[in-house]
Design a protein that fits this description.
The complex is a heterodimer of chains A (about 425) and B (about 230). Chain A has about 425 residues and is of the alpha+beta class. Chain A has two domains: about 180 residues, no CATH class; about 210 residues, no CATH class. Chain A has 13 helices and 16 strands. Chain A is elongated and about 105 Å long. With about 230 residues, chain B is of the alpha/beta class. Chain B has a domain of about 160 residues: Rossmann fold, CATH 3.40.50.300. In chain B, strand 7, helix 7 and strand 8 form a beta-alpha-beta unit. The radius of gyration of chain B is 18 Å and the shape is globular. The two termini of chain B are about 35 Å apart. The chains are: A alpha+beta (about 425), B alpha/beta (about 230). At the A-B interface, helix 1 and helix 11 of A face helix 1, helix 2 and helix 3 of B.
Chain lengths: ~425, ~230
């Protein structure tokens, strides 16, 4: 009955209580949302590459190499020459090697030149392989396999022509050598979804009439002639390497890093990811801190609401006292009320989070390539909710103690 | 030990308001017999509310003894006094008597939450509340209505039902009719008398309205039982 009365009292002040609950709900949704994005981003990054022992590229920073080679974020400062690539490929420790050649684009999507080995060797989410949702791996020089997001965004299907643009966000197109969609990959939740994959030879083919990043004026080699050419690349952007034995990884890494002919960098994807987490760690803490402050602000708002209601509720408290309620019942009632508000706010916040996730999931995926999973709340998230409720009970002690003192002083007679 | 026939007995009670070192009231002797209906008349500021607070144990006398149903209130701790009040005394105030957001039933049952013995005296709380409401002339199906939606007269009857439930031996009414019009006042008092007699409950009603006097067994003037003290300490 006391719980029913506490509810009744809250409903009687629906507007202010509703506002307070909404503030708590929004703050909880924000806090949990930040957590979701943070853990989702981490999981998404960590899931992007698996089974690759080393990534090799021109010497720069390990995080930079990881970002541009795997996540298609940023650009390479330099390339890896084809000679060096072959040199590394020929080493006895190397089990497999897949070249990656980046630089061109199609609409808003990156074009990646590689070999068909990429489809066998590239693994994501604990060793999962790429799979075709439609069509086959490229067999012709001008075949292309597109990621799920490319197909979905641009409405491409098997057999559709694609014209690759030179560079990124460029108006110059390789219009003389159009590609044909031969396969569409299944959704992976990785940057592969937003990649147009062509053969390494195709990258060379579309650049036959180009020199130093610009088209040679008046030169236009026909496709038939190009097909007969020996299309060997001068350089690639990076290479994914698999090593025969785990123990050889560090040895190979060291020898590549000390490669005399060319300044190269070999990184372990997991270690580079850890470095990345260290860099973003401060921002993460700041983000959590800010969202925690928002929750605290909402709870202080609740405390203010309870405080401001005390005077108008002195009669209510006097009635309780007259009926035999001890002052500590009044104290308990106010704490119960705050706990109820916080609990409703927390549950509503959770609901808002899931509604937000349902709406934002496809948008975030298409805008940032970040797949936020919609799953049951984790134990950590439930603890956050419990924490908010407990914090609200503690915060409510301040007005509750004031009410306690008021009810002691007023007794059952209030002359307001 | 109080007289067996006395439900309430005040002996040589002195009380000084907090912060008032030289000003207080004193009640040399005042008692109520079981089943009596007594009207306590007094002007505003004559100390009526203080007297009621002393009887109910929400304030403690500086000296003297106040016994309700034979128990000296001063011998009880603050918590015990609260429970004792819930067990022994039914209270009706002038107005703003009820929790407006709660149902009529919850309002009537509220004192039973804090008085297990009084609760035990009622076999079926819901039926008892319904019977009281019927006897007090409240409309049928009023139980689940929010108290705040009732008229002032109806609210006072609900307050009376709340004071009577579990038959506490002492009923204290603090100007319960002052917010009512003349016709409603009369009906309310008739119903209150009928119910308190039916339950052999002692009724102490505080008012400034002397016109009500002829309806009570006894009329006591506040000025006859209290002395306002001014001392130079």
């Amino acid at each position: 009955m006391i719980l029913r009365l506490a509810f009744g009292s809250l409903i009687a002040r629906a507007l202010t209580v509703g506002m307070t609950i909404l503030a708590i709900a929004l703050s909880v949704a924000l806090f949990l949302g930040v957590e979701k994005v943070r853990t989702g981003a981490k999981a998404s990054f960590a899931d992007t590459i698996s089974g690759t022992d080393l990534i090799v590229g021109a010497r720069s920073g390990s995080v930079q190499l990881l970002l541009y080679s795997v996540f298609r974020i940023g650009n390479a400062t330099n390339n890896l020459t084809w000679e060096s690539y072959q040199d590394i490929a020929a080493r006895p420790e190397v089990d497999w090697i897949v070249p990656i050649s980046l630089g061109d684009s199609h609409r808003q999507f990156r074009v990646m030149g590689t070999t068909t080995a990429f489809f066998d060797r590239y693994k994501y989410r604990s060793g999962q392989s790429l799979a075709m949702s439609d069509g086959v791996v490229m067999s012709d020089l001008f075949d292309t396999v597109i990621g799920a997001d490319v197909a979905a965004t641009l409405g491409y299907k098997i057999g559709d022509p694609i014209v690759v643009a030179h560079g990124l966000a460029s108006f110059t197109e390789h219009e003389d050598q159009p590609f044909r969609v031969s396969g569409i990959l299944e959704k992976t939740g990785t940057p592969v979804d937003r990649t147009v994959i062509v053969s390494l030879k195709a990258i060379e083919a579309i650049h036959v009439d180009w020199k130093s990043g610009a088209k040679i004026p008046g030169k236009s080699t026909s496709v038939d002639v190009i097909r007969k050419m020996k299309l060997e690349p001068q350089a690639v952007t990076a290479a994914l390497v698999g090593v025969k034995g785990r123990l050889q990884v560090f040895g190979l890494q060291r020898s590549i890093n000390e490669y005399k002919q060319e300044p190269l960098l070999a990184i372990l994807p997991g270690v580079a990811l850890q470095e990345l987490w260290q860099i973003v760690g401060i921002a993460e803490i700041a983000l959590i801190g800010v969202s925690a402050m928002v929750v605290i602000t909402a709870l202080i708002g609740m405390m203010a609401t309870i405080f401001s209601s005390l005077n108008e509720r002195r009669r209510e408290m006097a009635i309780f006292r007259a009926m035999g309620a001890r002052p500590r019942v009044i104290l308990g009632l106010l704490i119960l009320e705050a706990t109820l508000m916080a609990a409703i706010g927390a549950i509503l916040g959770l609901a808002l989070l899931y509604i937000g996730l349902f709406i934002a999931q496809p948008l975030v995926d298409s805008a940032f390539g970040l797949w936020l999973p919609i799953e049951a709340p984790s134990i950590r998230e439930l603890w956050v909710l419990v924490g908010v409720i407990v914090a609200s009970a503690i915060v409510s002690l301040v007005p509750a103690l004031r009410a306690y003192r008021l009810s002691l002083a007023d007794g059952m007679m209030v002359k307001i | 030990m109080a007289d067996k026939a006395s439900i309430l007995k005040l002996t040589d009670v002195k009380y000084r308001w907090p912060g008032q070192t030289s000003f207080g009231i004193s009640i040399p002797a005042f008692d109520l017999k079981v089943g009596e209906t007594v009207l306590l008349l007094g002007e505003s500021g004559s100390g009526k509310s203080t007297l009621l607070s002393l009887i109910c144990g929400t304030v403690s006398a500086d000296r003297g003894a106040i016994s309700v149903s034979g128990t000296d209130i001063a011998s009880l701790s603050a918590g015990q006094r609260d429970r004792f009040r819930a067990e022994q005394i039914g209270l009706i105030f002038q107005q703003f008597n009820l929790l407006p957001y709660a149902s009529v039933l919850d309002n009537i049952l509220l004192p039973l939450q804090f008085s297990p013995d009084r609760r035990k005296r009622v076999a079926s709380v819901k039926e008892e509340a319904e019977t009281l409401c019927q006897n007090l002339g409240l409309p049928d199906n009023v139980m689940n209505v929010r108290a705040g939606t009732l008229s002032v007269g109806q609210q006072q009857r609900v307050a009376a039902a709340r004071a009577l439930i579990g038959t506490p031996p002492l009923l204290i009414a603090d100007e319960p009719t002052s917010a009512l019009d003349a016709a409603t006042q009369k009906t309310f008092l008739q119903l209150l008398f009928a119910q308190s007699r039916a339950h052999n409950t002692t009724l102490l009603m505080v008012s400034h309205d002397a016109r009500l006097a002829d309806q009570f067994d006894r009329v006591v003037q506040m000025s006859d039982i209290t002395k306002t003290e001014r001392e130079n300490t």
